[in-house]
User: Fold these one by one.
Assistant:
Number 1:
Amino acid sequence: MPPRPSFSPLSHPSARRLPRLALILTCLLALALVLVLPTLVVAEDADIGELYQFNCTSCHGAEVYTRTDRKVTSPDALERQVRRCETALSLKWFDDDIVAMANYLDTHYYKFKP
Ligand code: HEC
């Protein structure tokens, strides 16, 4: 009887291709994340921008955020002031919305955070 051929699963071509396929899939996934994440962030900024345009421009324009004697001088105070105006308008936003709006105003006008 001839000796049984020794068969190692790792020497099978499909077994050797598998890690490469996994690597390619991982790269594609990473690429997809890199491409999609910024659009999510931009979309959120655009949503807040709309919320802002709709609710926050009837009493004062953006000039109150950039004037030299503006009242708000820290990120905490900015969040408190957003909350004050939001409460005055009875908008019933969630805390997340308040924070997002404070961040929006910070990014576009106050520029406390680098
Ligand atoms: C009902 C009128 C009204 C609306 C609408 C309004 N605010 Fe105000 N807001 C005020 C008044 C009054 C002040 C104080 C202005 C001043 O001190 O001259 C103020 C001031 C602010 C300041 C501080 C400006 C500074 O001096 O640094 C921020 C920030 C602010 N508002 C955010 C918002 C946001 C966000 C919205 C939308 C949710 C909003 N406001 C909507 C009345 C309003």
Number 2:
Amino acid sequence: MPFGNGGVWHKAHIVRRIGDSFSERVYLENDSWKGERVISEETAFIMRKMLREVVENGTGKKAALQNKELCGKTGTTENYRDILFAGLTEDYVSSVWIGYDNGINSQALKDASSPEIWKNVFGNYADSVESDASFPECENVKISAYCAETGKQSAKRCPWGGRGYYKTDHPDTCKKTHPLPVIKVSSSPAPVTSEVTGTTVPVTPAVTEAAVPAAEPAA
Ligand SMILES: [Zn+2]
């Protein structure tokens, strides 16, 4: 939950509000609870982006929603004894667990998709909720390419590893001196027909080696 609201934890509760027949409030869970910071704003933001990646490009694709920015995480215990999925939208955190208390029938769980089940149980509802809730942005984190070799923020010549998130006051840039990568360029000229014999002679492709500079890291 703190990943979706800037690192602030709110006590989980089931009953949110109780009113009487005149809609007079009798009880409201959040009356006295203001929340407590448990992780930094930056860490919460980065975690949320990583959990978003799970739904966009990872194991949680089947849970993707149309209207809401869904972040999530799948889980599997050893030998498919349990499978689970936790999903986070701007409004809710919810999760499903699927399994057998005695651990039998792991094949059934192997064939099941916890993101798909989550979507059927919670997702479609979460997707239909109208609210003005939004995930907080974080100015202290910048998005930058990371070095495939060291995992640190890319400098010049670093091999491209992917998209990374970095605290602006602690960027931890790669300091390694990478050699220029060498790539092989091959070309296949058309076979040559001999004017004397009329036979066609295949030409061995020429192979040349060239040093190319690595891609510049994204700003
Ligand atoms: Zn590097």
